[in-house]
């Protein structure tokens, strides 16, 4: 039976959750404690809640098999409230007060970036959770990101190829002024120029922005044919609503690119038909052939429904479960919990996960990238079940996962069934 213990973190009264997961009979040795923060509230809360559930399922599975090297897995985690300013203090507490043995990173780039210097200084292994380029400057050789992407051109390639195939030659860039979006936009700009495209609009916006109407009208006035957006969940939803209301003009071939949040079930269901025609990155949609994902999602969905969180779980959950799988393989392969030995193993070996084989480069990012580009089609309003169909999000790239052809211009794609 799971034991849940709540306690307060400092003056901010942050709730901490310590979850002890047993396998029926208590394991003889002391538990191996894995610590992390997670955005359970705030703008990233939907993703964080789904990620935690997947990690719980992994820990339960491991403990049912006898634990890691005979030791029960105990997850120790705190709500970072989607606030990057909270994470350094949480990770210091995890190491110095809670005395955790191993570390997982929080979900997302913003909360992860501030802890990288601390983790490097302490020489701790850190299993990443859907961050983008947080290790580019820190160069910590014990960082390993679970995300199926690497550099910015990998994000932009499928999107840009689709736009160019429809005759797009001019680009508008709209990016949130935050760690993730800025890292991505900084990498995308030179890539667009290398491909011979002219950037006619390039604007950052504060993360607190609620009204995007003036920005959308300016993009419309720029006559851009390709509109590339790098945004976090709150901004993504607001931008879709604003584009639906104002429009971008008949010249636009393609819109989207790197909009975080459109992958989350509650946001996608709420936006419904307004998403039609948008082209965006994703990591998994129904119809893709990934070992074990469908079986995992059947278990996940039952639990998610009971906890009233993202029921479909196509984005974070399979990859969060894979974090645990990779750590488990490293522990079993080295017969050790030593951070350095585990890191060396992860660098040298291909890892088997439910999301397919994973290999890492020197910076701890995926060397075998598998990021997909999809186009929303024929969506209705307030219908969650439609997203279980491969027809709802047609895969445009890469070629090995392709399920349909790109429809352009954007005005035509928005009406496509």
Word description of this protein:
There is one protein chain. Helix content is 36%, strand content 21%. With 417 residues, it is an alpha/beta fold. It has a seven-stranded mixed beta sheet, sandwiched between helices. It has a seven-stranded mixed beta sheet with strand order 9-8-10-11-12-15-16, with helices on both faces. The protein has a two-stranded antiparallel sheet with strand order 13-14. α9 (265-271) links the parallel β11 (254-259) and β12. α1 packs parallel to α11, α5 (152-165) packs across α6 and α11 (317-334) packs across α12 (339-348). It starts with a strand and ends with a helix. The model is unreliable at 1-27 (pLDDT under 50).
Sum up the structure in keywords.
21% strand; disordered N terminus; globular; 417 residues; alpha/beta
pLDDT < 50 stretches: 1-27
Average of pLDDT: 93
Name the strands of the widest sheet in spatial order.
1-2-4-3-5-6-7
What global shape is seen? Answer: globular
Q: Sheet bearing the most strands, described?
A: 7 strands, mixed
Helix content: 25-40%
Task: Produce a short descriptive summary.
With 417 residues, the protein is an alpha/beta fold. 36% of the residues lie in helices and 21% in strands.
Walk me through the topology.
Blueprint: E1 3-9, E2 14-20, E3 32-38, H1 45-64, E4 73-79, H2 87-96, E5 102-107, H3 109-112, H4 116-122, E6 126-129, E7 143-145, H5 152-165, E8 170-176, H6 179-194, E9 198-205, H7 213-222, E10 226-231, H8 233-246, E11 254-259, H9 265-271, E12 279-282, H10 293-307, H11 317-334, H12 339-348, E13 351-353, E14 356-358, E15 372-376, E16 393-397, H13 410-413
Parallel strand pairs: 3-4, 3-5, 5-6, 6-7, 8-9, 8-10, 10-11, 11-12
Antiparallel strand pairs: 1-2, 2-4, 12-15, 13-14, 15-16
Helix pairs in contact: 1-11, 5-6, 11-12
